[in-house]
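Sequence design from tokenized structure. All designs in this work follow the same two-part layout: the structure record, then the generated sequence. An example of the structure record is given first.
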């Protein structure tokens, strides 16, 4: 078996493992052990590099949308998705609140500017579906604006597909008890306080408003050409692995060709002399 097949076989063995559940004594799915998670993640991230090289070579255009409940793990999943690939190929888009000028535009107009060109993978950390979710629930748009968006978005996404974009849409779902635990951890952990805004606290109490908004969004935009994929992320580690594995399964990339590389001999010092003045070295308290 050649090296290409070896890589593909190793990845194929790794992918299903992430989706196999184990259960604790209370009947809940047990958390995936860290070592197993990290070993599986390393394999998947290697495959993402192979996908990246195929995207560059083929000129593919891939758009990945991440939506979901607050604290469902969108940011952590996106971080693991892009941390081992080139930012020149994988580009993360997380738009702030619209400006007054953007509010006067066609709603999806500011997102179109970020769509992928050939050889790019664009990852949206929340997207145009803000109109169907947070804007609807929090009253930032009118019911008529939400209805208009839901009527039009399937056609917009059909145009994206017809232009050659591969569109993948993920909804991350977390249970109410786990969401409560994660919100409370943000209150008490100084590393996470930046994740907790007044908006998050207001949204926390509107669980079923968000459920109704999600259901209406799925009904209007879960189409044969751009379906929604739901990932359960009460266990963040399992959720990340399952999402990355699924994404890889949707892209027809080729295995990465392993090159035979030999390092060249390093040049001799010749007439080089170290500078007389030493550089300023930072303190080493660790």
């Amino acid at each position: 078996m050649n090296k290409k097949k070896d890589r593909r076989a190793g990845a194929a063995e790794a992918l299903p493992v992430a989706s196999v559940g184990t259960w604790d004594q209370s009947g809940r799915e047990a958390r995936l052990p860290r070592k197993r998670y990290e070993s599986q993640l390393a394999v998947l991230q290697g495959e993402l590099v192979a996908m990246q090289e195929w995207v560059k070579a083929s000129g593919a255009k891939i758009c990945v949308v991440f939506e979901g409940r607050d604290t469902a793990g969108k940011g952590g999943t996106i971080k693991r998705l892009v941390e081992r690939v080139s930012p020149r190929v994988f580009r993360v888009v997380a738009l702030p609140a619209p400006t007054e000028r953007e509010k006067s535009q066609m709603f999806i107009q500011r997102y179109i500017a970020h769509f992928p060109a050939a050889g790019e993978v664009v990852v949206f950390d929340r997207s145009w579906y803000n109109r169907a979710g947070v804007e609807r629930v929090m009253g930032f748009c009118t019911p008529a604006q939400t209805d208009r968006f839901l009527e039009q978005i399937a056609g917009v996404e059909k145009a994206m597909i017809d232009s050659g974009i591969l569109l993948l849409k993920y909804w991350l779902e977390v249970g109410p008890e786990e969401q409560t635990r994660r919100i409370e951890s943000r209150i008490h952990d100084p590393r996470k306080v930046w994740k907790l805004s007044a908006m998050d606290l207001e949204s926390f109490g509107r669980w079923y408003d968000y459920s109704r908004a999600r259901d209406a969004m799925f009904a209007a935009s879960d189409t044969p050409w751009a379906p929604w994929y739901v990932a359960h992320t009460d266990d963040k580690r399992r959720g990340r692995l399952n999402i990355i594995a699924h994404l890889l399964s949707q892209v027809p990339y080729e295995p990465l060709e392993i090159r035979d590389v030999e390092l060249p001999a390093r040049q001799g010092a010749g007439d080089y002399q170290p500078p007389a003045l030493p550089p300023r070295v930072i303190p080493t308290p660790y």
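Residues 34-58 form the longest helix (25 residues). We note this feature because it recurs in several other targets discussed in the main text.
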